[in-house]
Amino acid sequence: MAKINFGGVDENVVTREEFTLEHAREVLKDEVIAVIGYGVQGPGQSMNLRDNGFNVIIGQRKGKTYDKAVADGWVPGETLFEIEEACERATIIQFLVSDAAQIAVWPTVKKHLTAGKALYFSHGFGITYSDRTGIVPPKDVDVIMVAPKGSGTSLRRLFLQGKGINSSFAVYQDATGRALERTLALGIGVGSGYLFETDFKREVYSDLTGERGTLMGAIQGILLAQYETLREHGHSPSEAFNETVEELTQSLMPLFAEKGMDWMYANCSTTAQRGALDWMGPFHDATKPVFEKLYQSVASGNEAQISIDANSKPGYREGLEKELKALRDSELWRTGAAVRALRPGK
Fold first, then answer.
1. N or C: which end of the chain has fewer CB within 10 A?
2. Catalytic pick from 123, 233, 235, 284?
3. Which tens digits make up the pLDDT trace of 112-137?
């Protein structure tokens, strides 16, 4: 494990050059990896593991998601099973159903966690909030985590491009003495670009804050606020969208991703540079209290309880679809659909 300096702080990092795919295959050569759940992370992680030469099976209840697994090449009775049978066959159980669903499925998984097996998560939710989820693993199994920093769709797409997405890793419980080795092998197997060390609590705190913050919640709120301001001052929908979203995602973010914010600034006009430097302070000062309030809501368990309660309500999926439809049907994102359709090459 190498020490890499991140902004003046040394952190433990594992790269694919240090922990090779060949070594990962050797570590897991006698293991049967059961991916339980074929929703968000399940398809990407399982197909990457399969393509990398690991012994992988899927555990999924019959229905639309089961049919999707069949379409992806998983064979009923050979590599695709009901959840209980997959857990029984496995030596490593990748518990990748949604956070709320884990509560319902946990009794089935737990009874097949015999001594020496490994219980794998891609999110620290179930373990960190065990007082709310009831997920308390037996003491004689490894409890480990690899958490890709992106969706399963992105994990799979980058894998097929010969790239990788960064992942965090953690060992919560080492019953076999092999927990770390198993974790790293799985991290390389699922297609991680590199792996950085964390623990279950820090992972879930940062993840819930990020999703509600700059990754999803805050970005939508900020984009909508700017779009509305431009529209209210007489700008057309196409102009407001291009200045709010299109230039951000198609021009500036690729520069930002390539070499950092300073490099992106350096490749913009001097007028843009001056304005950005002058206004980043007021935006920071306005939003920092909101992020602190958000973090405290995560740390207290309030956000976890909201998620658990919402997902357990009858009709939650129908209500969620209504909320997403309202977002989709808003002027901002209807304009976005029209702008995307005009991109060259479409």
1. C
2. 123
3. 999 999 999 999 999 999 999 999 99
